Amino acid sequence: MTATAGTTQMVTLRIWRTDAQGGDGKFVDYQTPVSEGMVVLDAVHQVQATQANDLACRWNCKAGKCGSCSAEINGKPALMCMTQLAHVPTDQPIMIEPIRAFPTLKDLVTDVSWNYEVKKRIKPFQPRKPDAPDGTWRMDQADVDRVQEFRKCIECFLCQDVCHVLRDHHMHAEFIGPRFLVYTAALEMHPLDTADRLADLKDKDGIGLCNITKCCTKVCPEHITITDNAIIPLKERVVDEFYDPLSLLKRFFGGGKKT
Amino acid sequence: MAEGKMSLPMARGAGETSRRDLWWLQPLAVFLGFSTFIGYSTWAAFQNDHYTYGSYISPFYSPALLYSPTQDAEKSKSRAHEKSSITRADEQKAHTFCGPKPAWWPGFLPFSAALLILPFPGLFRFTCYYYRGAYYKAFWADPINCGVGEPRKSYWGENSLPLILQNLHRYALYAALVFIVILAYDALQGFIFINDDGSKRFGVGVGSFVLVLNVCLLGSYTLGCHSMRHLIGGHRDELAKSKTQKKLYDCVTCLNGKHGMWAWFSLFWVGFSDVYVRLCSMGIWTDFRLL
Predict the structure, then answer these.
(1) Per-run averaged pLDDT (10 residues), chain B, 291 residues
(2) So what's the ipTM on this one?
(3) Which residues 8-47 in chain B show a CB within 8 A of chain A?
């Protein structure tokens, strides 16, 4: 059963609640009326307004563009503002939990600051010398389009959440996660960029830890083809640089410059 | 927050999840699909018989580098040439590139033409990015599905032996490309039928289409490979500077978008092609001639 057109029905939200320090977590059931067009975030706000004023929930745009309201709805990482109740079975309690790859601050709010620290470590954009005397560059639109996809990322960190390397193995010290592989791909594949991040990808960023489950691609609300267009092409570039004997030989004889 | 000080939610146990959908169905289907194929192809590879039918040759046995017909094959007439004295052994010999099994072949080693070549396409599929993602889930539960708890605490990914060797997938691709050329040749041969007097004629049988479709599906799978996409142009940042390379890259990208689908279709059809040739050779199925 789902919330359908023109009706109001009662649904049960089973929300993860913690104490003020993010500990002592448990699920608490709240019954609330929902109607056509409501999203999960609306229902959570309704609970917050009427039954649990101390319920912590991060949100901002309610339009799927700020990436604040990331949570797990019935075990699937999703943006609460983009998950319509009409698409969620309401004949059972709807389980709403915080994302699991980061520490819980309170209730549905997590501390995602680790991501900002990781971003600082990645070598920034380093353009080549300008192509024209007026200090401008020339790029082919097709080459720009290729990396444009990666710039759609809203940093909701759902891909980080679903990645089992972070979520289940807690390898935050060894692996930067899909979000920052996408970020690196946007820089590394940029037609103007000259920086070399391949050694970092292999040694510091842990690209070899990705085992291509494509879970990150499945949860991306911006539909970025994370695995096929960002991670695997980066893996292949790392192969060129460190594993492929023919590429190594080619570079030894002076070929294989960045094009 | 410093990485070492994070207080993370406890990792869930094996199979533990809040997911309510049938999350186990996909890995189970993949497990059964792969297991069936591996089981059948291993059995078929050890048979060393019924891999030819007239001008058709099973893709499991092509290219047939050496041959060593079974006693039954030497005695039995080919089902494709029942009115002549051509045996299955003669047919197998006609499809062989090099010659008979060498005398020095160790007696304890089972011989089959398929065993000499199947490791190459096998390795291509084993190291394929799509298959890796699929079998890590279905056979190794790492993870069993997205957002589902894992059975093991330790994890090395593809950073150490043996899985670091997955990085050499492109070499398996090079071999697979050679196989596509050979299988295309086989598919063309499937339109040449040999009369009982030994003369050749053009013809079309259902098996001709089976082999053509086989090479089309395998070609779509192989040419859409992620390594192919990288090698054909993906390694360049300014790809559009070469229009030809950009077009080739776009073609490979187009195939790559459905790489998983091509992987499954080609896996099924290459198995079916062997079944088709085998059952025709055994006289269980009839190869209907259209021309």
Answers:
(1) 67 93 97 98 97 96 94 92 88 93 91 95 98 97 96 93 95 98 97 86 96 98 98 96 97 98 98 98 95 87
(2) 0.93
(3) 8-9, 11-12, 17-21
* Same-domain check for residues A67 and A146: no
The amino acid occupying position A108 is L
Touching B: A residues 81-140, CB under 8 Å: 89, 92, 95, 97-98, 100-104, 111, 113-114, 117, 139-140
Whole-angstrom distance, CA of residue B284 vs CA of residue B273:
15
A79 interface with B at CB cutoff 8 Å: no
- Say if A36 is an interface residue toward chain B (CB within 8 Å): no
Instruction: Estimate the crossing angle of helix B169-189 against helix B206-223, to 10 degrees.
Output: 160
Domain boundary among A75, A110, A145: A110
Domain that holds residue A196: 113-252
- Is this model's pTM higher than 0.80 or not? yes
What's the total number of domains in chain A?
A: 2
If asked whether residues A236 and A161 sit together in one domain, one would say: yes
The residue from A45, A78, A110 where one domain ends is: A110
**Using CB atoms, which residue from B132, B156, B257 is nearest to A212?**
B132
Residue from A169, A194, A201, A209 to probe the interface with B (highest B Cβ count within 10 Å): A169
Residue A2 lies in a domain: no
DSSP string, B30-55: HHHHHHHHHHHHHHHHHH-SS-EETT
B189: burial class by Cβ within 10 Å (0-12, 13-18, 19+)?
middle
